[in-house]
Amino acid sequence: MLNAVPLTRDLVFVGGGHAHALVLRKWGMNSLPGARLTVINPGPTAPYTGMLPGHVAGHYSRDTLEIDLMRLARFAGARLILAHATAIDRDAKLIHVEGRPPVAYDVASIDIGITARMDIPGFDAHAVGAKPLDIYARAWRDFLDRAQPHQTPTIAVIGGGVAGCELAMAMAFALRERGAAPQVTVIEAGADISGVGARARARLHAAMRDLGVRFEANAKVTRIAQGEVILADHPAVKADLCVGAAGAFPHGWIARTDLPQHDGFIVIDPDLRVSGDAHLFAVGDCAHMPFAPRPKAGVFAVRAAPVLHHNLRAVLTSTKLKPFRPQKSYLKLISLGGKSALAEKWGFAPAGPLLWRWKDRIDRTFMDKLDTLPVMRPPALPDVVVEGVRDGNQTVPLCGGCGAKVGGGVLKSGLVHPEGTLNPDIVSGPGDDAAILRFPGGGFQVLSTDHLRAFIEDPVQMARIAAVHALGDIWAMGATPQAALSSIVLPRMSPALQERTLREINDTARSVFQQAGASVVGGHTTMGAELTIGFTVTGTRAEMPITVSGARAGDVLVLTRPIGSGVVLAAHMAGTAPARVVADTLSIMQQPQDVAARVLENAHAMTDTTGFGLAGHIQAMCTASTLQAEIWRDRVPFYPGARALSDRGVASSLLAANVADAPTTGIADPLLHDPQTAGGLLAALPPDAAETAIEALRAQGCTGWIIGQLDAGTGPIRVS
């Protein structure tokens, strides 16, 4: 009997701002049974803006100021969709998302912040906005890396508010630390620094003078050209780098919606709901609070988070909502370039290193709250269990990234076919990537099946990866994909959520298979304990399909994808993998390999690197071809971050079985046994053909590495 509470409502977060990040943490500590949570954000991390000037000045690394949305979403049991939201259809309750089907919602919340992109001629071509952080941080790093001692780089910052002055001082400080002599100019349309009182303004001017930062007041920018900013009634300002930091600008796509707006910002009521909409919330800098107008500052998003969390649950459970009452005054802590800061509240404006240490402690405490999450532990075993239950391999959580496969040794002993049981039309059965069937009129068909337990919460991304994973067996045999049957297990959910989920999965699967030249012709769907997606796939080939038994002595081994996905996904499911590591790995895993398969269609032998790990698949090819392999360790590609995770002791739940089953006792590196999902093609070709294939792969935007060679003889794999 399935005892899980059924999913009945979709809660969707658009954006990964500070309020949403804090709510995700609270949700993970105390989720609401029956609600399925989705987060839509362009990247796997979100910047904490309070530490941005410190990062620019060189006091913090990039990782220090990034909120890991991947880990937070995993902790909260939410799916994270890495894409831009582009529109909202409030009548149909759909969020339109770039590059994928719309996401349905019952309740949604928007926390997308602001942008600093300015509507000035030449801005797009010759300047960069201070927000979003990703673009600005990349431009700043490139600029700083090019700076040389004794050079005089020029920078213009458009906007003389607190943010513009902070960034100007931070950039000036960092360049001086490199030995350069920067000329930094803050360009302000008004008469003076905005957003602070007279005492703070005087201290900011003094701090900028100490760093050689010039403040150009009453200056209107007319256009931006290569290397300079053109002003009205002022001399042009030289600018090797131009940064826009003038005020807060709403994201353009919001203006194209029917949401109630004030100057492009979403108008909300005291309970944080969008005015006139009972099921849509907005919070943070993207929202306008007519009941309590406030400047755009992260402190209000942080203070709004507990109210947002309560009110989201209230709407989903039909209980009473709370009003948000933002404070009228708040403490400003402003970085002064070096490790010194200015504090302003109630007209007081002290400054000094002690205040920077105070600001640093506040900022790190905030980030620690989002970074230090309770460890995800499996349910405890009962006090009394039968023998064998407490054995090490039985208590390791199934990571899912390896498909939670059964070990190779068990499969070999459990799938033995008695002689004479195969139909005469079957050329080969178990043991290769796919069964090979002979057509009566000539030619061959290959047949394979695969399914994956969900290792991420997003059905769309899981469907893409599962389809690519299943197609790998067909591509590895040099066949052309023909048809697919789906096999889907949905977790228990309401009919409405069943329909939404199946539409996402089936639309995605059809797209992947159509791109590969195949059609989804049917399938079977049921409900179970967890999301599982699989496909049975057929392919055709006029001549005998490529198998693992055709390799020849002297061939070299070509691999088309890095390895290490098993350890990355194991760490992700445990909540310990860095967001960008997971995002980059998943991005590669969901890419089709049809181009690589065509390039390698004349390989002597080929397989796809999946659950049994690189060493296991190489050994299978050697055993079938009666050869011995040598792996060139330094040429084996690994997913970024996989080595560090493996060295920390992270391992897939199938790793122990792979090590035990592989007759490669000389291989101590766990990553060579790491089980892969949607792994690369592994092909045996003559050296000249392999070099040609590598060049052809690169010419078509694919990757390939020559990682070893095959020699006459038998025995364990050698690693050199």
For this entry, give a set of tags:
720 residues; alpha/beta; FAD/NAD(P)-binding domain; 60s Ribosomal Protein L30, Chain: A; 4 domains; 6-stranded mixed sheet; 21 helices; 24% strand
Walk me through this protein's architecture.
- The protein has 720 residues and is α/β, with parallel strands linked by helices.
- It has 4 domains: 9-114 and 250-330, FAD/NAD(P)-binding domain (3-Layer(bba) Sandwich); 123-244, FAD/NAD(P)-binding domain; 422-545, PurM-like, N-terminal domain (60s Ribosomal Protein L30, Chain: A, 2-Layer Sandwich), CATH 3.30.1330; 548-720, PurM-like C-terminal domain (Phosphoribosyl-aminoimidazole Synthetase, Chain A, domain 2).
- The strands form 9 sheets. Strands 25-26-27-30-28-29 form a 6-stranded mixed β-sheet, with helices on one face.
- Helix 1 packs parallel to helix 3 and helix 15 (565-573) crosses helix 16 (579-589).
- The longest helix has 21 residues, at 495-515.
